[in-house]
Design a protein that fits this description.
By secondary structure, the protein is α/β, with parallel strands linked by helices. It contains 23 helices and 26 strands.
Length: 682
């Protein structure tokens, strides 16, 4: 199927090719892009051809095998057209036609899927902007034809892809493949990620998504691709306004953004928030050698923009250190005395080709990467400065990013930089931001790879019959999850006996199936010190739950000098089970300090989760407190993340608080909500 889609020998354009019609524009795109007219055919009821390409009234009458069909017929005709193309031997089709699920025509889209199931033809679209393979002169797209190169773009939105391709053409970013898959009735981002992972012409994958279906299959495909090459992702619908727009645009509600963020990082993808950031990273990955360290030097001819770039470099995690005394001495030997030898190194407006070349070559012996910044006055020729930058990059072999601006004044110099393989960024700030992300990637600071559950064939049968806290605590204990000693009591006398067995002081909690959040109703009493206080506490809790199906109380030892954290589970509509870690006890809602991962996680990923939170500083022994047992906590998180695969009835579970001690952890409370759900699907 993939050769038919991306390297077809014969392409049939099905639809009207009258001037002003989409078919006419697509045909011109194909011809202007260099696809041989002899390998093209036009199909429409009138048998009308155009632009020197022969027309036929049906696909069957073309008289030669068709690999790929490009369809721009009315929505109602598309299923029948697809079936005709399949019967004529076509293995792939791109359906440009709109008017399906995005406007409520779900039945029409299902009819397309039925043709796919029946015939085996594979579909891009409907409601898409086409595809591109620059290395095969294949341009059946409504968007700009970009130059050839190593970036492949998968975009759910054709318009977003169009902007990116237009920038690529304007700024010389080479594109290998482009796919606008629109409604994704058949082929989706998962399929294209799998293909591009193996595509030798693709160095970097850029992905724009609004929502995904079959989220875990998506994660498997994404993770497999990131193991081979960088994958840069924009996930739209981050805010409530964005989610509303996504719903109206695609007919599907996006999942919680925090879960998407965690899932993308787990797979090793680089998430960005704007097309500009995506474009800059693609430019950096394809044009720069690997950036192996954070020490960056800025060489400029203008002080203010250099300082702005330096400020932003520090903000995004780079280090803009001063040159060493030895390096300063070497620079002063050939630079004029009016040049600033700090970092940024300011050559002033008097900067020359040799000044840029020699300065960059010298400082890159000490730094990991450089930004060559040129703010050009209209009266000076910037091409010599560009030559100096190119020579320095070649001599040093280290990453050199350029920011020559403003555009019209430096157009010739930028063109020269581009021809010589030096990336030019729109501003110095954008250049250092790209360098910072490249450092994280090349130094292995992106997340470990996501791994799917290994327990799907091993469901357990001992799911607790009761969801009351004492029964759940006993169940956790049987699973090897550490809990404190506890006793239950249905009377004040039983409570006194239980407290004595545990040992004072104790904690007493109300037990009722109608009280989930006990603290909010005063259903937890801490630090009970004697028999009299136990009796009084029991009566108080019985009164609180008098009209709420009171089942007695549960008592625990009062645990001191422990850090309280939360470990939780819930099910995301796209990705299924998700594990959460964060600040616990009374601070959970107050601080909103939570790290998420798509479950399951291993011990290393659990440690990474802990490290992302603010509570991690307390766990490492802040203000003289002994450090908490991070290894035991990570083991608990990993073990909890396995539970929804062993027990598919778990819809949601909170362990809060979990007490982190200098040695070990203890689960202080548990809340579980049951609901039938497959562990690997929404």
């Amino acid at each position: 199927m993939w050769p038919s889609l991306f390297t077809p020998q014969t392409v049939a354009l099905v639809g009207s090719v009258g001037e002003g019609k989409l078919g006419y524009y697509l045909l011109r795109q194909m011809l202007d892009g260099g696809f041989p007219p002899a390998r093209l055919a036009v199909v429409n009821p009138k048998g009308q051809g155009a632009l020197g390409v022969s027309g036929y009234p049906s696909v069957a009458e073309v008289g030669r095998p068709i690999d790929l069909a490009i369809i721009v017929t009315p929505a109602a005709t598309v299923p029948a057209v697809l079936e005709e193309c399949a019967q004529a031997g076509a293995r792939a089709a791109v359906v440009i036609t709109a008017g399906f699920s995005e406007v409520g025509n779900v039945a029409g889209e299902e009819a397309i899927r039925e043709v796919v199931r029946k015939t085996g033809i594979r579909i891009v679209g409907p409601n898409c902007a086409g595809i591109v393979n620059t290395h095969h002169a294949l341009f059946p797209t409504l968007e700009t034809r970009p130059p050839a190169g190593g970036v492949s773009l998968i975009a759910q939105s054709g318009a977003v892809g169009g902007v990116f391709l237009a920038w690529a053409r304007e700024h010389g970013l080479g594109i290998a493949k482009f796919v606008s898959y629109g409604n994704g009735a058949d082929l989706t981002e998962r399929d294209f990620l799998e293909y591009l992972a193996e595509d030798p012409e693709t160095q970097v994958v850029a992905l724009y998504i609004e929502e995904v279906t079959e989220g875990r299959d998506f994660l498997r495909a994404l993770s497999a691709c990131t193991r081979r090459k960088p994958v840069i992702v924009i996930k739209a619908g981050r805010t409530e306004a964005g989610r509303r727009a996504t719903l109206s645009h695609t007919g599907s509600m996006a999942g919680a953004d925090a879960v998407y963020d965690a899932a993308l990082r787990q797979c090793g993808a680089l998430r960005v928030t704007s097309l500009e950031e995506m474009f800059d990273l693609c430019l950096g990955f394809t044009a720069l050698p690997p950036v192996r360290g954070r020490r960056v030097v800025i060489v400029t001819n203008s002080g203010g923009p250099g300082v702005l770039a330096a400020d932003w470099a520090e903000e995004v995690g780079l280090t803009v250190t001063e040159p060493s005394p030895t390096l300063r001495e070497r620079l002063s030997a050939f630079l004029p005395p009016y040049c600033s030898l700090s970092n940024p190194i300011d050559l002033t407006v008097e900067g020359t080709e040799e000044g840029y070349r020699r300065t960059l070559t010298t400082v890159l012996e000490e730094y990991d990467a450089a930004l060559a910044l040129n703010i050009a006055p209209a009266y000076l020729d910037s091409v010599p400065l560009a030559r100096g930058v190119v020579q320095a990059a070649r001599e040093s072999g280290k990453p050199v990013a350029a920011a020559f601006l403003p555009g019209p004044i430096v157009a010739e110099a930028v063109h020269y930089l581009r021809e010589q393989g030096i990336p030019n960024f729109a501003t110095g700030e954008r250049a250092v931001a790209a360098l910072a992300r490249l450092v994280k990637y090349y130094t292995g600071q992106h997340s470990t790879m996501w791994h799917s559950a290994s327990h799907r064939a091993l469901p357990q049968t001992d799911f607790p019959a009761s969801l009351l806290e004492p029964d759940l605590m006993a169940w956790l204990q049987a699973k090897g999850i550490p809990v404190p000693a506890f006793r239950t009591a249905r009377s004040a006398d039983e409570a006194v006996t239980a407290a004595r067995e545990i040992g004072y002081p104790v904690v007493m909690k109300v037990v009722s199936p109608q009280i989930l959040h006990k603290s909010e109703l005063g259903g937890v009493i801490l630090g009970i010190a004697d028999d009299e206080a136990v009796r009084a506490g029991f009566e108080r809790l019985a009164e609180i739950a008098a009209r709420r199906d009171f089942r007695g109380v549960v008592l625990y030892p009062f645990i001191r000098d422990a850090q309280e954290v939360l470990v939780g589970l819930f099910r995301d509509p796209q990705f299924g089970p998700v594990v959460a870690f964060g600040a616990g006890g009374i601070y959970t809602e107050l601080l909103q300090d939570v790290a998420l991962r798509v479950a399951p996680v291993d011990r290393d990923e659990a440690l990474a989760m802990i490290g992302e939170t603010r509570v991690a500083a307390l766990l490492t022994g802040a203000r003289g407190r002994p450090p908490g047992d991070m290894d035991a906590l990570a083991d608990l998180i990993a073990r909890v993340s396995d539970l929804p695969f062993l027990y598919p009835d778990i819809a949601e579970m909170d362990l809060n608080p979990v007490f982190v001690l200098p040695r070990g952890v203890l689960v202080g409370d548990v809340r579980l909500i049951a609901g039938t759900s497959s562990p690997d699907s929404p």
